[in-house]
Amino acid sequence: MTDASSSPPKPAGRMRDIWSQFRTHKGALFGLITLGILIVAVLVGPYLWIPEKLSVAEAIKLKNQGPSLRFPFGTDQLGRDMLARMLLAGRVSLAVGLVAMVIAIVFGTFIGVIAGYFRRLDGPLMRLTDMFLALPLIPLLLVMVMLFRDRVAGLIGPELGAFTLIVFAIGITSWMPTARIVRGEVLTLKEREYVLAARSIGSRPNRIILRHILPNVVSPVMVAATLGVAEAIITESVLSFLGLGFPPDFPTWGRLLFDGQQYLQVYPERVVWPGLAISLTVLSVNYIGDGLRDALDPRIRGR
Amino acid sequence: MLTFTLRRLLLAIPTLLVISLVIFLLVDLAPGSPMSEIPLTIPPEVRQNMIKALGADQPVVFRYMLWLRQFFWVEPMTLFDGWFGTGIVEGEQRILSWQSRSPVFTIIGQRIPQTLTVIGTAYLVGILIALPIGIYSAYRQYSLFDQVGTLFAMIGFSVPTFFSGTLLIIVFAVWLGWFPTKYDTQLAVTDWSSFLLQVKQMALPVMTLGLANAAAISRYMRSSMLDNMGMDYVRTARAKGLSERTVVLKHVLRNSLIPVVTVIALGIPSIFGGAIITENLFGVNGIGAALIGAIQASDIPMVQTLAFIFAVLIVLFNLIADILYGLLDPRIRYD
Amino acid sequence: MKMRAALLGALAALGLAPAAFAERGTDGEVKLTFPQAVSIMNPYLTGGTKDIYAASMVLEPLAGLTPEGVLVPKLVTEIPTKENGGISEDMTSITWKLLPDLKWSDGTPVTADDAVFTWQYCTHPEGGCSQATKYEGISSVEAVDPSTIKVTFSGAKANPYTAFVSALSPVLQKAQFESCLGAAAPTCTDANNMPIGTGPFKVTGFTVNDTVTMAMNENYRDPAKPAFASAVIKGGGDAEGSARAVMETGEFDYAWNTQIPPDAQAAMAAAGKGQFVVAFGTLVERIEMNTTDPDPALPEGERATAKHPHPILSDIRVRTALSKAIDRSILVEVGYGAGGRPTCNVIPGPEGWASDNEGCIAQDMEGAKALLDEAGWTDSDGDGVRDKDGKKLSILYQTTVNPIRQDFQALIKDWWTELGVEVELKAIDPGVFFGGDPGSPDTFQKFYADVEMYANNSESPDPESYLGQYQCKNAPSPETQWQGENINRFCNPDYDALYATLATTTDLAARQDIAKKLNDMVTKDSMIVVPLVHRGTLSAHSNALGGVQINAWDSELWNVADWFRVK
User: Fold this and answer.
1) Average pLDDT of every residue of chain B
2) CB atoms within 10 A of CB C85
3) pTM for the complete prediction?
4) Under an 8 A CB cutoff, do C431 and B54 touch?
5) Residues 6+ apart with CB under 8 A from C516
6) What is the pLDDT of residues C429-484, one digit of tens each?
7) DSSP-assigned letter for residue C144
8) Measured between CB atoms, does A35 come within 8 Å of chain B?
9) Which run of H or E residues covers position C185?
10) How far is B157 from chain A (nearest CA, A)?
11) Searching chain A, which residue's CA lies closest to the CA of residue C335?
12) ipTM score here?
């Protein structure tokens, strides 16, 4: 159990501590490496793997091919190289998935901690959460597109504007479960002996929250984060069906998965690649979360 | 606890009124029109007339007040009239769906049974699978069971239901031919064979949804159990010579349930909200399918009523979760 | 047995008589599935095709249309014409004679009063009747005697077969709907969901947006039909799921609207349980060119209005070049397979009405490039995009979210890029695109893009009302709250003048000739509309279901009375 009265270790030392613990976690290392490979692949890949330039008529003859040396992932219904599309798609999906997850988690945790810790804010914040939970998602998204798309695009350009809007839309519609879960945990944590002890020696609330509360809500937050990445990647594909987001010729993993679904029986490999990519991303985020949780847990770290 | 509950219930009324107004404005502001699904061959003047006949051209404030009156007075009184044969609101217009011109509550009434049986069963199955898996995975962290469980959970929630549902259809309905792909809402369970049919047609949607639900809940259960496994009180309990069973299932489990209760409480209203994609895929005429159909057709009375009932359930179940926190951990005080 | 004779005669004349007449109600249940569920069974309160088709099993018009687009009597003894005296010499009235002994499914007789009532029902100003155009130009409908209906028009009517013809305009039972006139129309839930009709089936159960259950109508006019004792329509899901339920699992007999990719069609057909059937009406997937400037820099109220002509597309050479660069056969192959064919016409059928214009079918990339060069669009800075006076040849191309349309967008973008045109793609939720909400920037009427793609069709074989949409006055603008069917804001006085003559021309050959000219004026002469694919409606039926005759001019279920179980 954290000892509130002992002097805290130096930040640098603590980080090193966490990292050395993290390194011993096999799953976490696997997760970190896999995610790293995925990120490097989508960043560098499109420069290394340049698909042949084919005219439409040529490409159509090569549609729906299975994997081959020429097309390692096969081709789609228009004869486009699936590997090149997967790599391009990954950029957006990984960026949207990770950024939107971070927004949702940070915002949700913030609301949850504040609501759980300060009784006076609990009521209003939780009613706000209830309201966001109750709003029907699709009309909300449609209204957001209608009101903000042109303005955001005017401010920072169409591509970045679309990205910002998507990330914002996903973030604002998915922080509520995290907030509720964190609040529930904080409600019990703040009555624990060590928090009471810290408070009785006059520690300020922000210090108590940072030192004693936050480290103890890491594990549900990590689970929420894992779920969040998967959800964000899938939600992105839903958004593109509402006209929100990237132009229709811009591939993302969620969209490739959805497009491939009608070909599931005829060309199953069309859904395998995006499905695999999403699952791998989620799996690695999960293991990183596991490792992080263990590494942050002083009880385990000390062992 | 009682005063807390009462106070929260009273506070819920203004909260819900605000929520209903926000929902109404949101749905009204959303682009789209009740005419979006009719063919282009119908000319603009006729469309205008149809909109007028729906009352959709009235100002938004007027329509909101009308809805409030219909929801809180006409509909309950219609029910009352139905029970006692009185005629208090005879001739008053009920909340009518723009899409089908049927009373919204009749439609909801038609759909509640399927929603509860299919989506409810799926949720129950999900919880019943998830809790033991989560508990055992945490108890034997990093065992083979845990690793396999993790893998399945990850696949369970990284694969969207439109995909897993289609896959299940192809395997179990097309290749094996065990189950039907379309849910027969007219099937009445009267004897053993019709019960068997009902089980068969529920199998695929329940599997699809149960998998997704179980995946998420089991992760929360596992992580929360892990947090508590290393606590001092567990060591104390073990030192007292209590059996492992008692230690894990009584002490650790009870203290680990708070996040799980939150997740389940968040999930129960969504049973009513339905599983939009799954219902659509299998033709289960649940509330979710109704909601998505109404949103696509900009059927404001329907969307508004469903979203509001959904909001009531969310507020209610979050209150129940709060009360459960107090029971699970008596240190939590709200007053 | 005059009625039997008349009916059999009609059927035999069309060559439809099934090989063996079964007895009524001996073939059990027929199961249909629609990807969109049925919301209401009253065609006058809905425009949805799903609802109209379902209602057509119960409610019937006086006359229907065959798959060839020919009128066929349903509740009447014969089709009124000038020759048989049914239509007055001056074309101002038409008289229908009801079949003798005709009964509603509740056993009461059908009379001319029911038709008169139906007219009143749909023309009531507060009723919001969706089929009001069917009754346009009618000054009165009278019951001359219980079995004679006289429809009088306010002027000479070239095409008098609108009211009470086809599944869009069936006869309602006066007794059932009497209290549902005008503002009360939507409140008659029971009547709207379970209308009493003359069709081969009657509704026994209705769950909104889910299932309609029906039983055979014991009072149906042909005692040998229908062969099925009951019918059920299950709605919901998607085209793929509906097709699968017929073609692969065999749970259903008939699936309407099973538009799935050609490869998937082939795979499903290989299962051997059923077959796809296609009917070609006038549905044409097209690219519409904007003649006004949609530049967002223009003030709201002037953007995309006739005040500012389009800076690029106003030149017919650019429009022609864009059309020439497209290979329509590849589009068909990718998107529709047997369910589509390349076309250059807005009116691709029926035979006689369609122009012989085929100039656009062969792709001509070089010709397109030459046209752009000639128009002054050249790639002066070598970046692969043509420009002129410092302005890039850049186009925003929008359509609805739909997998086939996105494939089309990708292909056409490739061709146009090859041509040296920069293309930005946009896909919009169909509910928003077709919703017509004046507050949304993304409706197809506002047309805040350079070109847009969607499909439209004429609902009757005679395209008069359909061609009317390209008149100047129908252009959407802020003054009309962006309502109007002339999406391109096409405005040609010659077109309007020629169109005016169509309304007064009664000779069929002359009408067809005018229609062809009008068709050419918006397509090959001006390239305002660039037709791509003549689309059929694709449905599927199981091999165990006989008698299906898919129909693009009337309800697809128009001959459901003749369906039978193949044993």
Assistant:
1) 83
2) 10
3) 0.84
4) no
5) C347, C353, C354, C355
6) 888 888 777 778 888 888 999 999 999 988 888 888 889 889 988 888 888 888 88
7) E
8) no
9) none
10) 7
11) A77
12) 0.80
